[in-house]
Design brief:
The complex is a heterodimer.
Chain A (H helix, E strand, L loop, with lengths): L2 E5 L3 E2 L5 E8 L9 E7 L6 E7 L4 E3 L7 E6 L4 E6 L8 E13 L2 E9 L3 E5 L2
Parallel strand pairs in A: 2-11
Antiparallel strand pairs in A: 1-3, 3-8, 4-5, 4-9, 5-6, 7-8, 9-10, 9-11
Chain B lengths: L3 E4 L2 E4 L5 E7 L7 E6 L6 E5 L3 E2 L7 E6 L2 E6 L9 E6 L11 E5 L1
Parallel strand pairs in B: 2-10
Antiparallel strand pairs in B: 1-3, 3-8, 4-5, 4-9, 5-6, 7-8, 9-10
Classes of the chains: A mainly beta, B mainly beta.
């Protein structure tokens, strides 16, 4: 059974750096083809993808947030960590981690999110 | 990046109604589309992958169709548990987007 769970601070102050941890079970990020993403959702809005890390340590970032976001993994602990710098009240959102499932598509891959964590609300406020 | 639109943005329906939600892509995505259901305070849940494949455990009243730029999610007979917001998402190799969502509420 695949599960993912997010953890970290519920409140951060403006300009601070947010660090969130996704702890998962039921699969390993050392297995070829495994990938995990971070996604956030502001109240009343559609989900917004932030970052992805692959089993081979390839990393991909949202174009609009790539200067502020970093993703890393600790395979031995089954954890993926997201850091986001210079937090602002507009970054208040529920942050999810999700496993990524991919299929071969031409010369590349086509991916979607097949398992999600429960999410955690992060509020940015002084 | 591929842009997605969904219609309607809100849909009011009664239990037992047939519900159809449309998702359009800014360019052809073949059948590389997923549909998610999200209830308040919960994470999105995958319903349909590759445009028409039903995720294991999802009731058969849900179905997906389409290819290229136009897709539909159909609920054949709306149940009380189906009141939620539905999002489409084009598959991607690297950069991911979601449709703006369709909220299905009680008529």
């Amino acid at each position: 059974q695949v599960t993912l769970k997010e953890s970290g601070p519920a409140v951060v102050k403006p300009t601070q750096t947010l660090t969130l941890t996704c702890t998962f079970s039921g699969f390993s990020l050392s297995t070829s083809g495994m990938r995990v993403s971070w996604i956030r959702q502001s109240p009343g809005k559609a989900p917004e993808w932030l970052a992805r890390i692959d089993w081979d340590d390839d990393k991909f970032y949202s174009t609009s947030l790539k200067t502020r976001v970093s993703i890393s993994k600790d395979t031995s602990k089954n954890q993926v960590v997201l850091t986001m710098t210079n937090m602002d009240p507009v970054d208040t959102a529920t942050y999810f981690c999700a496993r990524v499932s991919c299929a071969a598509a031409g010369t590349g891959w086509a991916c979607y999110f097949d398992k999600w964590g429960q999410g955690m609300l992060v509020t940015v406020s002084s | 990046d591929i842009q997605m639109t969904q219609s309607p943005s809100t849909l009011s329906a009664s239990v037992g109604d047939r519900v159809i939600i449309t998702c359009r892509a800014s360019q052809s995505i073949n059948t590389w589309l997923a549909w998610y259901q999200q209830k308040p305070g919960k994470a999105p849940k995958i319903l349909i992958y590759k445009a028409s494949s039903l995720e294991s455990g999802v009731p058969s009243r849900f179905s997906g169709s389409g290819s290229g730029t136009e897709f539909t999610l159909t609920i054949s007979s709306l149940q009380p548990d189906d009141y939620a917001t539905y999002y489409c998402q084009p598959y991607s190799a690297h950069i991911f987007t979601f449709g703006p969502g369709t909220k299905v509420d009680i008529k």
